[in-house]
Amino acid sequence: MDKMVIEGGKRLAGEVRISGAKNAALPILTSALLVAGWNTFHNIPDLLDIKTVKKLLKSLGVEMEGEETLRINAGAITNCEASYDLVRTMRASILVLGPLVARMGEARVSLPGGCAIGARPVNLHIKALEEMGAEVTLKEGYVEAKARRLKGAEIYFDISTVTGTENIMMAATLAEGTTVLKNAAREPEIVNLADVLSGMGARITGAGSDVIVIEGVERLHPCEASVLPDRIETGTFLIAAGITDGDVRVVGCDPSHLDALIVKLRDAGLRIDAGRDCIRVRGCGVPRSVDVKTLPYPGFPTDLQAQIMALMATAGGLSVITETVFENRFMHVSEMMRMGADIVIQGTSAIVRGVPRLRGAPVMATDLRASASLILAGLAAEGQTVLSRVYHIDRGYQQIEKKLSALGADIRRIPG
Ligand code: UD1
Fold first, then answer.
1. Separation of alpha carbons 196 and 145, rounded Å
2. How far apart are CA 365 and CA 371, in angstroms?
3. Which residues line ligand 1 (CB under 6 A)?
4. 225: alpha, beta or left, given left = phi > 0 and alpha = psi -120 to 50?
């Protein structure tokens, strides 16, 4: 297993280009299951999770060619089962469930099971499919769903769920009648997916609000579409500039998706100038402490909670960071404390008292965003940080060490 070695204390400067969003690319790729024929998707990021979903789709008989621009054809689906081996490495594999049932009338998908950041069940995906007339059984760790044709239904999600909304929105495109999703998730990735589905001929209104209406159609046709820029990667680079007191231009991003973070970074004292598709961020010496609470979009993203905690660990006061989306998403805390951070966990909050200097240390990545936060802490720390289990970061950040090196960071990957 590779490791990342970081010599901290370098100020980042220059320009960095943002890749396509992992969390948009994953449902967009599985949406290809809804149609026979060659779709063309642009701006597909080069990530471990994308390799996993491609492997999964290939195991279903989907053909594909290309990388950043990917042509993909589910004209001949030969298998409706997503095996445990593929699903266990990536929860988002559940995103094949809705499209497969809608198009093929059946699907068998391994339950994702527990994962590092909490139980993360898929009960809401299953309940919604049942409400659309699917017969769903749980057998030997698999969800089996069958329906001759799904029926439109009014579905209320009692928790805002991103992949749940995506799964059911995809399923509803081919259902008989109209489906109304209430308390739907509002993330930009959902709007991106809805645009792709509309390009395929689906009838969808309201994506981006908490009520989405999908009028089912008999069939969809292939389309050409682009994946939006990754807002979590963007946010991570904004924080990287702040934590190193740097001056960075983040280009090819969409600042309008990052209001919640930008407000907090400005409150912390960072200077931020946002254009249409770029953001210049300048450090302010020691940042001020700010309190943060994660929420579904447009609130502060849980996927940036660990990263802003790294910034707060170096700030000039006391910050309370509250996680409301996932239980058990503070695994980075004990690793950051090994680097000298002063953090106490109280229930769902982390009380972070900024310290003048973090110190480099050997640390271990426990999940994707936790690894990003440890890299950030390493960039700010005095001395050397060695991050192990780097495969977590490769799931969601395209060539992070190359992008950071180009900005002047001293970071290198060593094969394990
Ligand atoms: C997606 C993102 C992930 C992000 C998360 C929250 C993808 C591929 N992943 O994950 O990066 O951290 O949104 O922004 O887009 N829940 C249930 N039952 C369900 C479904 C969810 O109880 O059937 C709960 C979860 O346990 C969690 C909350 O709802 O507490 C939100 O989870 P959800 O929005 O579904 O997260 P994901 O879609 O898995």
1. 25
2. 5
3. 23, 26, 91-92, 118, 120-125, 159, 161-164, 185, 302-303, 325-326
4. beta
pLDDT exceeds cutoff 60 at 240: yes
Atom number of ligand 1 nearest to Cα 166 = 38
pLDDT given at position 400 = 97
Q: Is 115 a catalytic residue?
A: yes
> Of 95-109, 113-127, 283-297, which gets the smallest average pLDDT?
113-127
Report CA 30 to chain centroid distance, whole Å.
Answer: 15
Q: What residues contact 85, with CB distance under 8 A and at least 6 apart?
A: none
Q: How far is CA 273 from CA 18, 204, 230, in A?
A: 17, 34, 19
Cα–Cα distance, 240 to 372 (Å, whole number): 10
Residue nearest to atom 17 of ligand 1 (CA): 121
pLDDT digits (tens, 9 = 90+) for 48-66: 999 999 999 999 999 999 9
Q: Where are the beta strands (DSSP E) in 67-177?
A: 70-73, 81-82, 106-110, 135-139, 142-146, 154-156
> Positive or negative, the Cα torsion across 127, 128, 129, 131?
positive
**Residue-wise pLDDT tens digits, 292-320:** 999 999 999 999 999 999 999 999 999 99
Pairwise CA distance, residues 243 & 64, whole Å: 40
Report the alpha-carbon distance of residue 398 to residue 10 in Å, rounded.
21
- pLDDT 10s digits, 372-399: 999 999 999 999 999 999 989 999 999 9
Ligand 1, atom 35: nearest CA belongs to which residue?
Answer: 161
Identify each DSSP E strand in 275-375 by its residue range. Answer: 278-282, 292-293, 318-322, 342-346, 349-353, 362-364
Instruction: Assign 363 to helix, strand or coil.
Output: strand
DSSP code string of 237-288: HHHHHHHTT-EEEEES--GGGGHHHHHHHHHTT-EEEE-SSEEEEE--SSPP
Query: From CA 282, how far away is CA 240, in angstroms rounded?
Result: 10
Whether 164 and 193 have beta carbons less than 8 Å apart is answered as no
